[in-house]
Amino acid sequence: MVPSLKSLKAFHVAAQLGSFTLAARELRVTQSAISRHVISVEKELGIPLFVRIGRRVVLAPAGQEFARVLDDAFKRIEQGTNRMRVLRGQCILTVSVLPSFASKWLVPRLETFLRKHPEIDLRISASYHPVDFSHEGVDLAIRYGVGGWPRVYSELLMSEKLVPVCSPKLLQGRKSIRRPDDLRHFSLLHGEIEEDWSTWLETVEAVQVDPTRGPRFTDAGSVLQAAIEGQGIALARSVLAIDDISRGLLVRLPLPSLPTSNSYYLVHPLGAIRAEAEHLQQWLRETAQQEFQSG
Questions:
Q1: Which of 8, 113, 136, 139 is the most buried (most CB within 10 A)?
Q2: Which residue has the higher pLDDT, 159 or 135?
Q3: For residues 115 and 118, what is the distance between their CA atoms, to the nearest angstrom?
Q4: Residue of 150, 152, 163 lying closest to 142 (CA atoms)
Q5: How far apart are the first and last CA of the chain?
Q6: CB atoms within 10 A of CB 273
Q7: Residue 294 confidence class, pLDDT cut points 50, 70, 90
Q8: Which domains, ranges and CATH numbers included, belong to the chain?
Q9: What is the pLDDT of residue 161?
Q10: pLDDT tens readout for residues 266-287
C-alpha cells in the first residue's frame, strides 16, 4: 500500500525542516501527530527514514532518498494543478500585501499589469500578519522589514526614507517652516512606529519640539490621510507618499529626510514559483526601478 498523502506531506515537511517540532508548527498540528505520520510511512515502506539521536531526529540515507522522490512528486502535483487551472481559464494569483502599501502604491499602478496580463485573475489580500504560504494559498507577498526571513525567499524591492509632509492648506496663514524647530508650532501625526519622530528630531538636533504630542494611528495610510486633511505634520514613508505629493495633496517640507532600516521586499516560498507570480514579480521590479530612476 502507498502511505496516505497526509502522512507523506508530514514526512516531507519534517525532512525539509529537519525537525518534527518545526514541521508541526508549519502544518499546524502537534509534534506527536508528525511523529505518528512518520512512523506510519516507515511501517508502510518497511525501512527507517529517520535516525533518532536522543531528542533529535536526523534523516537516514533511505529518508534522504525518499525526500528527494517526494520533492519531485509534490512539484509535479503543483504543476499539474496549475495546468488544470489554465485549461479551464483560471489563472488565479494571490498576493499578500500591507493595507497601506496596497492602497497607496500597488493598486493605483495595477492597471498597467492587468492590461499586460489579462489572463491572470489577481487577488489582493491586505494583511499585516506574516504569510503562511503552505496553508493560505498565497503565491507572493510584499512585506516591510529588514528581509532575511527564515524558510522563504526574500528580495529587496524598494528602499525608502522618512520625509516630513503636510497639506498645502495647513501652511496658509501660518509661520513658514524653514528649520526643524519650527515644527513646535504644529501638531505631529504619529504612525505605528512610535520612535520615528523621536529619532528624526534627535537626528536633526531639534530641541524645542515635543516628539510625544499629537494623534496616533495604527496604519501608515491613515497618517497620510490625516495629513491630507490638514490635521498636522506627518513623517511619511516616501514610497507611500509619492502619489499624494505628485498630485499636490501633500507638500514635502524643506527639512532633512531620514533613511530607514526597513524596506519593501518580495517574498515567496523557497524553490520555483508559478509563471504568473514571476510575471508579477518582474513587473514590480521594473515599476519600482522606473520610479527610482525618475525620482
A1: 139
A2: 159
A3: 6
A4: 152
A5: 62
A6: 15
A7: very low
A8: 5-85 (1.10.10.10), 90-145+272-294 (3.40.190.10), 161-259 (3.40.190.10)
A9: 92
A10: 999 998 888 899 999 999 999 9
